[in-house]
Amino acid sequence: MKLARKWMGVASLVAVLLAFGSAASWAQGAAPAAAGQTGPGYTMAEYNAYQAAHNDTNPQTKLTKLDAFMAQYQTPALLKFVYRDYYTTYYGLRNYPKTIEYVDKYLALGDKIDALERLAALINRGQAYVAGSTDAALQSPEMLAKSRETAAQGLTAVAALQKPANATDEQFNTTKKNVGFMFNSVAGIAASQQKEWKAAQASFKAALVLSPEDNTTHYRLGVAYLQDTPQQANDGFWELGRAIALKIQGEAQVRAYLRGRLIQYQQPGCEKSADEEINQVITLATASAERPADFNIPSAQDLQAARDDLNNFLPWLQEGGQHGQVMWLATCGLEYPDVTVRVMEIVPGDAPDKVTFRVFRAPTQEAMEAATAPNMEIHIVGQPEARRIPKDDYIRFTGTVTGYQPTPFLLTWDESKVNTEDIPPETPAPGRRGAAPARPGA
Length: 442
Hints:
By secondary structure, the chain is an alpha+beta fold. The chain has helices spanning 10-15, 23-27, 44-54, 59-72, 79-92, 96-107, 115-131, 141-160, 169-193, 197-210, 215-227, 233-245, 251-266, 272-287, 300-308, 313-319, 321-331, 365-370, and strands spanning 335-348, 354-360, 376-381, 394-405, 410-418. Helix 4 runs antiparallel to helix 5 (79-92) and helix 11 (215-227) packs antiparallel against helix 12.
């Protein structure tokens, strides 16, 4: 899955360093001093060869000239300018592995570049890594370790920055947030590639402190939670829901991933319940940036325990709330045999073999006798003789739970069949009321 964030471009993000003293000439792409000035460390021929490459506006011919310069001269005093031209040109061509290769050569020059030039190069490296993180060339163990290392260096450098006199507090703080967000993102992405999920979570959470509504980072954090061992399901599902609520690009893919992980985690009886849960999560995540304290996605073990708890099948569903939701997830799609009910209403179907019974179910016959409104609806198919069943009869049916309405309570059953012993003959005996409930538990 490829997800994109609207990053500031290299030029615009590095340009914020224009206010920071000696980085100004670097960010503007200044060339070295002309040969003949005090202590340049290179000849006029070397200077002219470099300038010819530096001033070429065609990326491909510029790289050819830089290659020719390096083959002939490799002048130490000009290397930082040459490496800078290499990686900015490769970045423009979206060749992110080569961009990073030359940033690393530039950084390896050590004290030949000052602190602000180093920070600017680290920013370029970080943006190239994020842009090309799905490239196999950037996923080697060495590259991942180096990317986390340089991200940490970048965060240290950002923390050490002093506000220049000609920058407002707002400008300076915004710049630090943008740069810090990027370095934390790099660290999180690299840690995820290494499958070091807890480190990834820490980095993505630090990024979200700086940019709380970045939808892609919420998605990445959700994945890191769900991939962890053991998976942190509530955190993971919430973060994915938050990403969707914040209108992430590729929403359909994120929904599909969320749905697949939810079904795998819960193993529900019917998959439509997963769609209902996803919609509930997204609704909550749209209403609030903070996860509600009582937010909980029940696991497969929770659902199995509910399935096994026959005594609470109907009471929990009628109760609604958390108990009702758990029981619905546990029982949706399951078939139950010989459920005893009282027929309250009969609705003929659109074919002779179809009929819908609106019925009432309770643990005791007294409660069923006292009922005035149905609490279940059962759809009978392929049993035309079921139409002979009169109102107020007691019947036993076998059916599959397919629908749940908490308020007013109504449970829907499909693919249902009435026990043939409870279907009266074509001419029923006078006064017949049907069998008393043989089994109060469903």
